[in-house]
Amino acid sequence: MLRLLYTFIISICFFTSVWADGSKYAASSALSSGKWVKIQVEDRGIYKLTYADLRGMGFSDPAKVSVHGYGGCMLDENFSNPYIDDVPAVPVWRGDDYLLFYGCGVINWTYDQESKSFVHTNNPYSDYGYYFLTDATATKEMESVASAAGASLKVTTFDDYLLHEKDLVSVNNSGRELFGEAMDMTLSRDFSFTGITGITNDDGKVTLRFIAKPITGTGSVSMSVDGEKLLERTIANANGKYDTYVMARPVYQVVDWKGDKSSSVKVNVRYGKLGDKNVHLDFIRLQMKRELQPYGVCTFFRSLASVNNASRFTVQNANANTLVFDVTDKLNPKRMETELSGSELTFSIPAGTLREFALVQRNQTFPTPKVIGEVANQDLHALPQTDMIIIAQPGLASQAERLAEAHRTRDGLTVQVVAPEAIYNEFSSGTPDATAYRRFMKMFYDRRTSEADAPKYLLLFGDGAFDNRFITSSWKNVTTSNMLLTYQTEESLDEESFVIDDYFGFLDDSNNGKGLSSMRLDIGIGRFPVRTQAEASNMVDKVISYMDNKDTGSWKNNVCFVADDGNSADSYMTDHASQADQLGEYINESHPEFLVNKIYFDSYKKDVSAGLATYPDVKTNIQKQLKNGLLLINYTGHGNTTSWSDEKVLTESDITKSTYKRLPIWITATCDFCRFDAPVTSAGEQVFLNKVSGGIGLFTTTRVAYSSPNFTINQMLIRNLFEKKNGRRLTLGEVMKQTKRDLSASRYKLGFSLIGDPALKLAYPEYRMQVTTINGNPVTDEPVAFKALQKITVEGEVLNADGNIATDFTGLLNPTVLDSRVSYETLDNNKTGKTFKYTDYSNILFVGNDSVRAGKFSFTFTVPKDISYSNEFGKMNLYASDETNNLEAQGAYLNYRVGGTDDNAEDDSDGPEIRSLYMNDSTFVSGGPVNTTPFFVARLWDKSGVNITGSSIGHDMMLIVDGDPSLSFNLNSYYELIPGTDGEGIVKYLLPALAPGMHTAEFKVWDIQNNSTTYDFEFEVVEGLKPYLLELTATPSPAREQVEFHLFHNRPESQLTVGIMVYDMMGRLQWKHQETGASELFKSYTVTWDLTNNRGGRLRPGVYIYRAAISSGGSKEATDAKKLIILAQ
User: Fold this and answer.
1) pLDDT band at 21 (very low <50, low <70, confident <90, very high)
2) pLDDT at residue 6 is higher than 60
3) 1112: nearest Cα among 1060, 1061, 1062, 1050
4) Peptide bond into 664 cis (omega under 30)
5) Would you tell me how many other CB atoms lie within 10 Å of the CB of residue 1051?
6) 1126 neighbors 1038 (Cβ within 8 angstroms)
7) Which residues 6+ apart lie within 8 Å of 308 measured at CB?
8) Measured in whole angstroms, how far is the alpha carbon of residue 177 from the centre of its chain?
9) I need a surface site. Which of 736, 846, 897, 1021 has the fewest CB within 10 A?
10) Is residue 826 within 8 Å of residue 603, measured between CB atoms?
């Protein structure tokens, strides 16, 4: 609930030690040896453990058992305040065959000098506090404190407080505050406080906290105590222009409570009207004076009058069984020495601060802590300095360890996988608390001796929840066992409420006492929002595969910037396009080795039908870019947890169904795209959780975001992603850390999180490429002319990290030569009178492939006839890969102008040769059957080159179905040369769903001298047509560790349902698996199996039968079966 700032603090939850250097941490945890048992307490109290109880726990000599810990109060988030390390011993009071100890629950009470009232803070992470029992350490007995002399004030009453509060609902699904009874329909509620024996008529206090969101006009709330109205407050309207994200407005007021009082108090709270939203009581606090006497087994008491006064406390109705404990310091409670005269017990204290006491009747029934169980020995304090910490629940630890080992072997990092429970045990007395994660990381930070041994990364290997205790109804049917804690802000009612993983990385002492937005992030932090073992395994596989860098290709030179056209709320502003364009132009100018693809909504035709606006071409283009491969995709605009933009150009369904294998990093400068702490998995999480597709990580928003701050954050992310620091590019965690530091005190940065591995670096090509000669002439500062129909030979070299020719680099070259920029103006689809102008390298002169040998390369092409003739500068982009040495290189050449015509051009009057053309597979003949989404393939050759420039109307490569303009497809960007051939290329395109029946098609292609070839054919679309399973293999065979099933089929790019069943030789099913996905042309669909059965057990060595089945679009299954031999491990 609400955490208040107080000017005067009772030290009920006081810690006794403070330090700033690493030498002050325990070298080894007390939990590292001996027998330890964990126990649970619910409320603050004096708890009893009998020796019989202790023997039942396995302790042979109860007299040697000690109690350790400090219970359940939320840890102090300001590390400049005193705090304690590890699990200190707590003094106990011993009877003949039992011990008593002071247990601290989860509510911390303090005194606010300004309002003259006691206030409380709940622990939002746990409903219970925890302690530990052991016989491995020396016992710690309570000290006795003698009465002080010279008491001048007699205290016969004490200040007490009562609380009514229920945690039932979060109105914002954000922040740590939960609220109680709803009062939107029931406008008046009574709350009874009974059994307040000994209450006096002295003035008291009543505190009300209440929330509501008035929709029309203002709201009002009133509070009456025993029929007397003490409070009435107006609640301002929350339906204005700037109140979109205000979920409710709070009322918090402390009022005087005068007059006669009784042991039963009725408080009435009334709300003024029906129809408003989020109307809830938060809490009611009563503060009163009571006669100082025992009220049950344990009565906690304190006296404001005793502050700064030497005081003598007089307790009535006491007896020989009455004890008084001073529990002001929860780590060091003491027994007060008292005097008993008849039924009056007295003791004295010197003048000083407010003190807290427990009045105990040892002859009554004490609460007994709940035994949780024995705790295995652990010692996080003894861990060596570590580069990376991965926090994972035990259910996911094996997968986290696989990732840790990958970083150890590939990156040379020291990595520790740690269970959250182990962290709580040593850093928060066993009580779940997000600050324990931070304390744990700070231990490594404080112990560092240099940057080399400082902690660098924290990976939170598990999903999280806005309700860390899972007590609200939203979480009742959610699997939470593998989740980790989240840090939620105190603010819980508006757009300044955040979930902040950065909190765990605020480690430097300079952060102490500062607000969250001013704190300095000291490590790279990421989160895997995984909930199950399967998700964890898939994500580790995905990251390790990316680290292995097996999918090389020129796609790594591609980045894409997508911009929304705004909406009615922002008057369809052009700012999104302007911001995206500035980011793209930064890449063009500062990192020309990358190719920038621009998708700005308002440059495309908007389709408005039946009141629904869509951008079908934007949607198609985004999917095409993702399929072709991107190093980065960056979105600026509106969004939510399920989609990008009001037009839903990218939806959660698109993401979960995607099958492309080239994984970009995503930057999403939009609202709420990745609310990972919600019960329902967000679209942003699905990007990461897609087993084989989606993205390798996201710099993404978890809450509401705003255009201007978003742009600043986006700019810094882009700069930190692409600029080198000390000669190297940063890991994802370092990018986020540096970005957050660059942003200084901006609160908006708190809404951005890294979803992914913070120690992972993008798979940038690390070597450089440079052009050395054009047509045999060394390149200089003088521009070179590229003329239409001119033959161009480009030579160059690959440079290693030291800037020398990489003579060990031999591999494949992929050059892309672009025409000069084309100017564009957006279409003003929304009729605002506002457009945005920009330029782009849209037209291609040549896309090819060749070879690199010993760091040298050369390629030749003919400039097409269809060029801009602008005499402006074009752009040449270069990529090369050496798969033998796992090396990649990239570069650019910009110093050429496009214009003029070569006077010595070679004549060519023949159109391109269509060497083969088919649908789905090469057995297709004209008129043959195909499925509803057939895959078109054509192999082409032309001695001059195929025209894919896109710069001249009528010369595009086109496939037209049924002569229908709506079924006309421009295939320029789907054409690519085939490596190792003399100019032969292939075009591949997945058609959209077609109606069943016969169809005609025309395929037309041009060469660069504008000679054309046309091919007409027919095909029959058959709904539910069964695919062919052309070949089925399993590798390796025999198999020892795992096996990959390869299914070769005739449905490239189509969504398939794939099933694998494994049987023993008796016909008993051992393993069954089904999934959906797609595979590319000429590639198999692959399923990996770890040789375990469906119960998780390892299959015995022997001979098995595996059966594969595939179907597509609701078709019948195509099946095949073969034998597999499994060997012993």
Assistant:
1) low
2) no
3) 1050
4) no
5) 27
6) yes
7) 351, 352
8) 21
9) 897
10) yes
Distance between CA 478 and CA 475 in Å, rounded?
Answer: 5
CA gap 252, 269 in Å, rounded: 13
AA letter at 463: D
Question: How far are the Cα atoms of 392, 489, 950 from residue 126, in angstroms, in the given order?
Answer: 18, 16, 62
In three-state secondary structure terms, 501 is helix
Both tokens of 834, joined, read 């506002």
CA–CA separation, 811 vs 854, rounded Å?
A: 9
* Cα(814)–Cα(979) distance, integer angstroms: 10
Q: b/e for 880-904, b at 16 or more Cβ within 10 A?
A: bbbeeeebbbbbbbeebbbbbebee
CB 649 within 8 A of CB 575: no
Quick one: pLDDT band at residue 511, thresholds 50, 70, 90? Answer: confident
For residues 650-675, give the mean pLDDT: 95
Instruction: Tell me the mean pLDDT in the region 1032-1052.
Output: 92
| pTM reported for the whole predicted model | 0.91
DSSP H stretches of helix in 697-854: 707-722, 732-742
pLDDT score for 244: 85
% of the chain at pLDDT higher than 70: 98
Structure-block tokens of residue 314: 């007089």
How many CB atoms are located within 10 Å of the residue 217 CB?
Answer: 14
In sequence order, which ranges of 460-553 are alpha helices (DSSP H)?
533-548
The residue type at 977 = L
With CA atoms as reference, report the closest residue to 1065 among 1128, 1129, 1126.
1126
Strands in 258-338 per DSSP E = 265-271, 277-291, 298-301, 311-315, 322-326, 334-336
Cα distance between residue 450 and residue 452, in whole Å = 5
pLDDT in the model for residue 4: 34
**Cα dist from 851 to 528, 751, 775, whole Å:** 40, 46, 18
| 350 vs 313: CA distance, rounded Å | 11
Closest-CA residue to 314 (of 157, 125, 549): 157
User: What percent helix, strand, coil does the chain show, rounded to 5?
Assistant: 15, 40, 45
**17 pLDDT higher than 80:** no
Q: Are 596 and 588 in contact (CB under 8 A)?
A: yes
Q: 425-448: per-residue pLDDT in tens?
A: 999 999 999 999 999 999 999 999
The full DSSP string for 722-763 is: HS-BTTBPPPHHHHHHHHHHHTTT-GGGGGEEEES-TT----
